[in-house]
Amino acid sequence: MAPRRVLAALAAVVLLACRTPAGEPIQTHGWVGSNYTPAYAVNAVQLWHDFRAETIEKELAAAQKHFGLTTLRVYLHNIPYEAEKEAFLGRIEQFLVLCDRRGIRPGFVFFCDCWNRKGVQLESQPPVKGRHNGRWAACPQQRHRTDEHLPRLKAYVQDVIAAHRRDRRVLWWEIYNEPNRRNAFSTRLRKTAYAWAKEPAPLQPVISCWDDNEATDIVDAHNYRADFAAWDRQADRNPEKGALFTEAGSRWYAPRPSNGEPVEIIHWLKGRRDAGRYVPGVYLCWELMVGNSNCRWYWGTKDNTPEPTIPWCGLLWPDGTPVSLAEAEAVRSYVTGKRRAMFFDDFQDVPPPPRRDGWTAYGPPGRTGSGVLPIPPGAKMIAGDPAWTDYVLEGVVMLKSDGGNAGLVFRVTDPGPGADRMHGYYVGFDTEHLHLGKMVNNWQPLAEYDLARLDCRVVPGVWNQIRVAVEGPRIRVWFNRMHPSSDQDRGLRIDVTDRKAPVLSGNVGVRAHRVEAWFDNIVVLPIEALPEESR
After folding, report:
1. Is residue 298 over pLDDT 70?
2. Are 188 and 212 in contact (CB under 8 A)?
3. Angstrom distance (rounded) from CA 211 to CA 286
4. DSSP 8-class letter at 183
5. What DSSP assignment string belongs to 425-450?
6. DSSP letter string over 195-238?
7. Is beta strand 492-497 parallel, antiparallel or unpaired with respect to 219-223?
């Protein structure tokens, strides 16, 4: 990116966003965040009625610490405004104080046509297991979608904006999330409310989806596919306005291996930046917290469906630790420019394996391609430094069929042809068990975990996450952590100390035994990077 554009982008992060001279888009580069509802809340009504400042402050601190997020997209709602106006407005101010302490600038959403349109009251009901966004509250509710109620909706919009129209802590105002384009009231409200928002003359941009329209100062885009040619078209739709992806992807949605997961989106942003193209802001993976919105399940999931092996959405667990250390590394290093990983591969670029820099292949050749690392049965690939001692290794693994196992190898020395020849450790899984063992050109089991104990189901064609921490002879393995309502162990499945000739240093890698497997987002971090809650 040219120096002038870099300065403009950085200035946009620090200064209040506003319309640039004619022909110049609003610079949104550096706006990297997520949608935010506290982990305890089922919707925006509960967020603002049951406002828990201490919990919110901890979650914001975790967002800044682990991901370096600069912004959040936060929903408002007219129900708490109308029921307890002064408390509602005061809590917005309190929320802005908490955000400002962490260098996070939120944007606020007024209206939304998604999910429950009837029956939402001030007091929220608990979530239903498996029901995606089961308690999310459309705004306004059906009972408020009348011409007679429009003056109250106008007061709701203007009272909020008037209090903060010159507030540098607010990044933007969003009129409408995903309005029903076939509903006359929704389309009229979007246009009318945009005019309401402009009357107080806010210095912040006023936006609305879908994409480019008459009621938005910035192209307001959503995308849940890993087709980045489509992302490019949205980002370039109106060069005079610029673009902002207020919903930017999610993880897997079987049978697709990705819906545009965070590491892929960061790779796409870097590609546009390096090519000197306009770089849009993004709000990753729908939501910050894996919580009671139930968006850890994907759209259309049936009630009482078991927990997913990896949340569909959500960057942080309720205890403030990252769902994925690889995602945290990718996002934080992009935002701050500071890399922490000892090794990181997202497999997004070419050349594909097995001719890939930093990797050595052992065993039969696999299929080529990028985006994931495919490993055929009876093969392994090794990377890293044989001098590494204590570290954290993480990756995601997908079995392509039944009948074998696949996983990660670590502290590897003397690797040779095939899947088995090596000194070191292997942690792998099939559809029934998680296995940990030492390999000294033969298999020496150390521990086994029965996966039937988990609420989530390990099946072919679905991603699974493995995280390993090695400190001296101690080995800990986390596998498919779930929401705390189903997983009091927070994902820790194996914790053993190898007291018989432990291997204390070596490389890392991947291995497949009697099954084809896919791997992605392999990261190695210093042991100090293991979240404090896991130590």
Report:
1. yes
2. no
3. 17
4. -
5. EEEEE-SSEEEEEEEESSEEEEEEEE
6. HHHHTT--SS-EE-SSBS-TT-SSEEEEE-SS-HHHHHHHHTS-
7. unpaired
